[in-house]
């Protein structure tokens, strides 16, 4: 399986996080904070229909503890 990161919008990332046990715990401006029961936490920027920058997406994926393939 490839480690190449997909190009995603915030809504797609949130859908994946929600399916994998994350829940919204707060929002500050356009940034949402999502937390898993085991304590993992990620911040997702909600900037309309724009794609999430690759560096930000890598940070979200690494922070979530989920494999890259779950986000495809």
Chart the SSEs and their pairings:
Layout: H1 10-19, E1 22-28, E2 31-36, E3 41-45, H2 54-64
CATH class: Alpha Beta
Gap from first CA to last CA: 11 Å
Rg on CA atoms, Å: 11 Å
Main sheet: strands, sense, barrel: 3 strands, antiparallel
- Helix fraction, binned, reads 25-40%
Can you write the helix and strand succession as a string? HEEEH
Tally of separate helices? 2
Number of domains: 1
Give the integer mean of the pLDDT values.
Answer: 94
Shape, per Cα inertia axes: globular
The strands making up the biggest β-sheet line up spatially as 1-2-3
According to CATH, the fold-level topology is Metal Transport, Frataxin, Chain A
Description:
With 72 residues, this protein is α+β, with helices and mostly antiparallel strands. The chain has one domain: Hypothetical protein (Metal Transport, Frataxin, Chain A, 2-Layer Sandwich). Helices cover 29% and strands 25% of the residues. The protein is built from 2 helices and 3 strands; from the N terminus they run αβββα. A 3-stranded antiparallel β-sheet has the order 1-2-3. Strand 1 (22-28) and strand 2 (31-36) form a beta hairpin. It starts with 9 loop residues before the first helix and ends in an 8-residue tail after the last helix.
């Amino acid at each position: 399986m490839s480690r190449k990161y997909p190009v995603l919008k915030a809504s797609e990332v949130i859908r994946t996080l929600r399916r994998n046990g994350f829940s919204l715990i707060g929002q500050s401006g356009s940034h949402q904070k999502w937390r898993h029961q085991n304590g993992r936490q990620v911040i997702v920027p909600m900037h309309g229909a724009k794609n999430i920058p690759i560096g930000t997406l890598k940070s979200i994926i690494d922070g979530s503890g989920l494999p890259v393939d779950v986000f495809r």
